[in-house]
Amino acid sequence: MYLCYIDEAGNGQTLDPARPDAPPVLVVGGFTVHDSHIKQLTWDFLNIKKTYRPQLRRALHLSEVIHTEIKGSDVRKDVRVGNRDRRRAAMLLVDSILGLLERCNARLLARVWVKQEGLAFNETGVYSTSVGSLTETFQAQLLDCHSRGVMVLDSRTKSKNAPNVHCVTTRKYRAGGDLLKGVIESPVFGHSDTHTLLQLSDLVVSSLLFPIACHAYLGDVTWNVHCDDAYRPLREEFGERLKKLQFRYQDPVGKWRGGIVVSDRRTARPSSLMFGLGEAAGRKPAIPAQQTDEGDVPSTL
What we know:
Layout: E1 2-9, E2 25-34, H1 38-52, H2 62-67, H3 72-81, H4 84-103, E3 107-114, H5 123-145, E4 149-154, H6 158-173, E5 188-190, H7 196-217, H8 232-245, E6 248-250, E7 256-258, E8 260-264, H9 277-280
Parallel strand pairs: 1-4, 3-8, 4-5
Antiparallel strand pairs: 1-2, 2-3, 6-7
Helix pairs in contact: 1-4, 3-4, 3-7, 4-8, 5-6, 7-8
Organism: Streptomyces caelestis
InterPro entries: DUF3800
Protein name: Cobalamin biosynthesis protein CobQ
């Protein structure tokens, strides 16, 4: 059995110079892992938390270590504006996180939405579309592994949670048959202070995918605080590892899908830019580079 943990970074704010701190991208994504690795992955992650937050080594109770979160937004801030020691610690943390995922053969999946200046962004539609797309990728992985699985999404509010899984529920229980047979149940919701691996998903999405997307697709947006060349080392050092961690698959017509997919509404550049500066220079990728998917984009972004 496989578990899939999903979190998001960014929101529906319009990308506008009047809001220099508005997130220029929305990322919905996470990772999948076989249930046999869950316990060890959790323990290893808690040890990483103790390394990055030394005060946790003196915690009297395990619950304190579990509840204390290292937010991805704080990690990327350390990369962007921290002093030398904080930047180094942040990079070492990201390196350790990827090492965890590599050792347990986890697979990354994400939808990255690049905003266009001045245009309204339909957060509800984009989030729902992302969950539907990620569920399809998870189903393809389950089919490939002859297994079954459950998705755990970071809980937001009831009004935001419910619409985001209706598309999955209707696909499972429609009259024409279950299109997601490997996914045991519609995605369930958890809180990061009680589901430790949702914290890990937050770090993947918020401290790695979000800043890399900002650097890769919005480097010319100089007025936004998130579009900073300080994120270059993340893209240079970890892009290739991100690419190898993806789960990619071919649909019935032979088109490559899954993995980390970018919808760039500004310039329609390919998703391969996420995986290092070499991709931007035209280096041929090791696996087929997925192009921006436009077919399932909500009408209003």
